Amino acid sequence: MDNGEPRWLNASELEAWKAFSALLIKMPAALDAQLRQDSGLTTFEYLVLAGLSEAPERTMRMSVLAALANGSLSRLSHVVTRLEKRGHLRREPCPDDGRYTNAVLTEDGYRQVVEAAPGHLNNVRSLVVDVLEPEQIKQLGEISARLLHAMDPDFPCPGQH
Amino acid sequence: MDNGEPRWLNASELEAWKAFSALLIKMPAALDAQLRQDSGLTTFEYLVLAGLSEAPERTMRMSVLAALANGSLSRLSHVVTRLEKRGHLRREPCPDDGRYTNAVLTEDGYRQVVEAAPGHLNNVRSLVVDVLEPEQIKQLGEISARLLHAMDPDFPCPGQH
DNA sequence: AGCCACGACTTGAAGCGTCAAGTCATCCTG
DNA sequence: CAGGATGACTTGACGCTTCAAGTCGTGGCT
């Protein structure tokens, strides 16, 4: 791992890293702020509801949903408890296998997503997509895929379509 | 704001956005995990200590430090309280103007940074810098600068050196 | 059948961040 | 030179995430 002298970043690497690391902090905050403001949802909650809204039967297993929203099962369980109290979804034991739990979006939860989605999309556009050149969007996609693959080899390797 | 029909993302925009948004969640978690594991520090705490270690007198005003670490003054105040309890730094009222508070890194805190820095640097290399082509690092820097500028016009406009 | 291991979730406590008030030193205005 | 007004912090409460146990079906082994 830590073999001998550390290799410091050169000037251009450092500049890129500083900007990128600031982005890693501020972009999620900006996305969260809009959703919180306009819909009273966190990004995580939005991902959960939006994920369910596109699933068959508007139903998904907890663990699948957790992966989709990039969070732990424990975190999801707490969030589902909150969303259940608000009436956006409900839990159901999986009929086929009692070890699994399904989350099911309610009508109320579906309305919530439909209401929140355009504002969120708009925000993604104005903060990211519409800010960059088409070329840069492609670059960002490739860079992101590479970095994800470096963190988790299960992530599809970039460079193969 | 929400003028008429929302414009959905096309396929390549969507792909890029999905990868990027996953990255926004997982990269900070991966950076935090290493620091937490190896040094018992959060990224924010590390930025605070590292910032102080490079400042003249190893001293910095709270509000400057907060900006440097991309966080609110309130958050910094809580963190400084914790770090003060651990002996990594101490508070001092600014001698020139009693409204300001300075944070001063202790010897103990300095050792902490010196110990943590190589592992963190190594992690930044293995998760980001060494994963990308030099060309991509440059692209990532430019993209990040643009996105930061879109969120906060005070951030130096990209394209002018 | 009965026992056990496993994996999917759930739960409670502890830690961290945010938000809204509150404190306090200095400046500014009359 | 009083009496706000301003701006830099501080504090406490609350909400969310994590971490470590705990619960509970199933499927495999004997």
Strand order in the largest sheet of chain A: 1-3-2
How many alpha or pi helices of chain A?
Answer: 6
Span of the ends, CA to CA of chain A: 32 Å
| Anisotropy-based shape of chain A | globular
> Which class best fits the helix and strand makeup of chain A?
mainly alpha
Oligomeric state of the chains present here:
homodimer
Helix content of chain A: 55-70%
**What would you say the CATH architecture of the domain at 40-151 in chain A is?**
Orthogonal Bundle
Considering residues with a beta carbon less than 8 A from a beta carbon on another chain, report the largest interface and each chain's count. Answer: A-B, 53 and 53 residues
Taking all Cα atoms into account, the compactness measure Rg of chain A is 19 Å
H/E element string of chain A?
HHEHHEEHH
Low-confidence stretches of chain A: none
What's the CATH topology name of the domain at 40-151 in chain A? Answer: Arc Repressor Mutant, subunit A
- The first-level CATH class of the domain at 40-151 in chain A is given as Mainly Alpha
CATH superfamily of the domain at 40-151 in chain A: Winged helix-like DNA-binding domain superfamily/Winged helix DNA-binding domain
Note the beta-strand portion of chain A.
5-15%
